[in-house]
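Recap quiz, item 2
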Amino acid sequence: MLSPILLGQAVVNGISLSAIYILVALGFTLLFGIMRVVNFAHGAFAMLGGYALYYVYGRWGVPYLIAAPLSALGVALAALVLERLVYRWFYQKMFQSMIGLLGLEMAIVFTAVIIWDPHERSVPAALAGIVEVGGIIVPTDKLVIVGVAAVALAAFYLFTKFSKYGLAMRAAAQDVEIAAAQGIDTTRIYQLAFVIAIFMAALAGGFYAQTYALSPLMGERPLMMAFIVVILGGMGSIPGVALGGIILGFAESFLGTFYGGSVAVFASFGAVILLLIFRPWGLLGTPET
Amino acid sequence: MMMNAKAAMAAVCGLAALAAAQPTVAQEDLKVGVIAALSGGGTAWGLGLQRGVQIALDEVNTAGGLKVAGKTYKLSMVAFDDQYNAAQAKTAAERLVNQEKISFLFGPVGSPGALGSLPVTQPAKVLQFVDGYAPAILKNEWHAGYVFRVNNSNREFAGPIVKWIRQTMPEVKKIGMIAPNDAVGQAAVPILVDAYKKEGFDVWVEYYERGSKEFTPLIVRMMAQKVDLFEINSNAPGEAGLMVKQARQVGFRGKILQSGGAGVDEMIEIAGPLAEGFLKYDVIEFTAPEVKPLVDAYNKKYQGIINGMVPIYYNAAHILLEAIRRADSLDTTKVRDEIEKMEGWETKMFGKLAWTGQAEYGAKHQIAQPFFIKEVKGGKGTVKTVLKPE
């Protein structure tokens, strides 16, 4: 069964899967890294991003390169209301945030069911078609996702590592009280981190809806994948998200292609269990002091 | 799910208030149960089931209600979501039977839910109308006492479809299938596999965990087996649409056919232009004049795509209501006996009612009706052929 084309196809599929997983997990890890919030409503914001893209691009015909960030930004800014009403109560409260935000997830999802009904629908692809290179097939819409994921990951990393606000975010992540004593407006910094995290979730949700299908209940799987990726890479670690996403994407592609779907699921979850036993802070995370 | 339950309760309260205000029209409430996938990959079927039954109930209510043994009943529905899985279906059945005290139940659609609900409904003599392909839905320890399958199962349609493929696609030698690793894959898919093998086809099957959205690795694995026809088998519309889309995206150029399910429009909605040429089993032709009143009623009441489950369950509801009228009773045993005697009754859109299954399942509780193979052309499902069940 092993052939160069099959191997190449598995690599291509691994890259596109990794890109989706990285995009989905970036916002999730940011909220945890900065505010110690386990955002179980992450999937709901991804779903809202999908619907926003459905209307802005699919219905109103706004050009895709404008529609994708505009939709995500709309969701992120609207979510500031929830930041004030809900999230702010859970900052630095990891366990309480899990339960509270699970409730928020359900409230958002079932409001969406009332508004849109649970029917699955599609968001038109930005680029329809395939590119064939030496017998290996690459769907063009997945090329777009890979490109966006690479740019988002790099921008994310550079912003947190080298910008003034990124530095403030990292300071707040290390010790919020000392950061405040140094003159950092931690409320504003938290809001900024929240907007960026929800923007990423909504952007990823738009791509996810385009790649698969759009429905109010579509967020469950992105949430699960984000959770697995950040556990693998290390909660709060951006390079960890990249590594976790790549491992998960390639494992699913290679194991699924050469050994079947059940083996892929078994091996992926088995690896997470082993990691939680022997290195619970993840591959690139740091142990809690 | 909650919304529907509350809506049903609100309707009940509203009707009760109406009845109180008009004492000359003495009406009682008759609740029928629905278990349907209202979330997840089977949502399209679940909504179709729920809406088909609701339209039938609306028709009877508009005509003044259902007259039984000197009383007039206003019909209402209590619906619960089974998420297309057995455990949720069992929970839903327990709530409907033990709390809501319903005697008549529509659904679930799909083998997992149907098999999960039977241990609750059959001992309680709740008359149930299911759709799912597992033989155990009818061939079981309760001898199908109070359950009818209201759609062809693949035991009835797989043979004719495979013979049609043999006749019309001589180039097809090897079949590839990707099936869910649950009751559908374990009980229903082997029937289809046997039908293909009986006609001399080579068959390759791979399984996935329910809930998956990414089938590309499995499709690539299937393509390495050099299959000529990708058979989507009994996958729910959500998964089936993605399989069609992802197969074309990774360059599968063979035929794609689904011998199972009902309704092609959801798959066109998900796969978009990549659905072109896709072949699909279907239960009805919506452009037929006898189906138009149902389509109009659906479009007036609901948004979104009408699928094959709407006419299937609209038909099932009318079969039940006619049997209740004939029995002049709400006793489920009497109503069941009347349903069994209704062979030859003229349905609104499926011709004369026919029951089969005595030899196969030990009870004539399996509906038998002609079916369609449709092909997606220009973004629409068009009838390619009409076949009869075996």
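Chain A has a mean pLDDT of 89.
The two ends of chain A are 49 Å apart (CA to CA).
End of item.
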